[in-house]
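Internal ticket #5521
Category: modeling
Description: The requester needs a full-assembly model to guide mutagenesis choices. All entity lines are attached below as received. Residue total reported by intake: 622.
Assigned to: D.W.
Attached entities:
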Amino acid sequence: MAENILIVGAGAIGCFYGSLLARAGQRVSMVVRSDYEIAQAHGITVESILGHWNFKPEHIVKTARDYPEQAAYVVLCTKVTGEVNRVELIRDVVSSSTVIVLIQNGIDIEAEIAQAFPANLLISGLAFICATKTRPAYVEHSAYGRLAVGDYPQGISDATRAFAAMFDDSGIECITTDDVVTARWQKTVWNAPFNPISVLSNGLDTQTVVNTQETYLRKIMSEVAEIARALKHPLRDDVVDLNIESTRKMPPYKTSMLIDYQHGRTMETEAILGNAVRAGQAAAVNTPYLSSLYALMKLREAQIEHLKTTA
Amino acid sequence: MAENILIVGAGAIGCFYGSLLARAGQRVSMVVRSDYEIAQAHGITVESILGHWNFKPEHIVKTARDYPEQAAYVVLCTKVTGEVNRVELIRDVVSSSTVIVLIQNGIDIEAEIAQAFPANLLISGLAFICATKTRPAYVEHSAYGRLAVGDYPQGISDATRAFAAMFDDSGIECITTDDVVTARWQKTVWNAPFNPISVLSNGLDTQTVVNTQETYLRKIMSEVAEIARALKHPLRDDVVDLNIESTRKMPPYKTSMLIDYQHGRTMETEAILGNAVRAGQAAAVNTPYLSSLYALMKLREAQIEHLKTTA
């Protein structure tokens, strides 16, 4: 049976995974703000390593309030920044039976949603993908694509299994995890160093970073692992080794933070670094390496603001 | 009696202090590489808050070997980077009676010179100045200017007092210190954070840095003070407070590292940060904040190299 799914956030993540669910036969609608007219006229184009396709959402609406159906799943795919009020974005379409799904970056980004909608099942999801919206309603998917989803704060409910199963045969794997918070910490082992470093180095590729400053990367990654352990979400003992090795094998990768920076968009500094540092403080873990990156990213943001006001 | 003084390094520092010594009646010559022709033709122009003047060196030579006199003082004013072999630059003009003076940035930059010329008096000097060579053989001096000099590794010899006295009535103060190594650590309390942060933030001014990330600055400064203490060069207990307060009172200041970066010149990353981190390691002081800045500056340098090779 086709489910009503509303995707909120028409960036690369929302467009790509929404289009896959539509191809799988679900009734997928989208909240589209800036690209509304072009998406209405031409749909959303996906140029993927899996093929090229056009995605015509069931409904394209400017805000969730305009969605004319009852959503079984509301999937939040926005950036997590101070500029986006995620609760307000979805409040009008969350009924008692709605399952809320997050496909978003960062640490500890679920609590705000869980508190606002305490009766709803909340699925937390992580996307391991390189995809970019290169022009309005046009997404290029260049590498990877795996999803990991689980109930927040833990467990795997039937609705989560059903959501994951929708991606069967899509060419993209969606795995379930009964400990999604640990999965987030695991992803942060990579994101916490490489996202800010790509910006602070003015765009140095991941290959050169790992080849020239491995010791430094290990210090940052170890702090993330230490926080996770202190919070009772221990990662594998060799998690740092694995991340160093896999980065060496990756093609040079452009991080999401670097892409946001180069497009003049707000970066997910708080969701990734700020929340990791705050979690460290709460767990009484000393984090000089993460705190340094966080402070330097805030200074870089201050410089961006300064340039805007003097431009 | 006028002394023969040879200035090696015709950047802002060498031109400015050389011109002051000439105005004081010394016989000042200069080694000038890139601006040789223009300096020969028109001398060196100084546009200072103290006035405007033209400085005609006694001799302008392309290398020290061409200097036709016996120098009483050889004053090294180059940047301290891997590209500059300071020993080779002065070897041909150092006789048994030559006093070697360094007016250069950084920590632990004297040992290399002291080892190469063990029989010579070595004066280590620090310049607290904002001066920039804005075009060939043309220096703008916009703020400050104080010098501090002392024998390396310690003490104040008669030659040092005589050198300092040459600046009397020049409008610039030259103080002597019997513990110049401590003075270098003291200056590094400010240089170690503000120089790299000005580059890593892409040019944010010192005012905004101190107003938005004071806690972070204090962490970095405290590490410098801790290394100095471990090496038996203790700084004042309130050295961090004083540096924070004085930065608040300073007009927004463009650091030398930022100026070098913006002009595509090699930065003194190793002399300031690398040597501080290595001193910390030697003294068994943990320096995560300094090490982070050092690693990020090395990555920024790697990105500059990458851009050069792909340009």
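Resolution: model delivered.
Comment from assignee: Residues 182-310 of chain A form a domain with the N-(1-d-carboxylethyl)-l-norvaline Dehydrogenase; domain 2 fold (CATH 1.10.1040.10).
Ticket closed.
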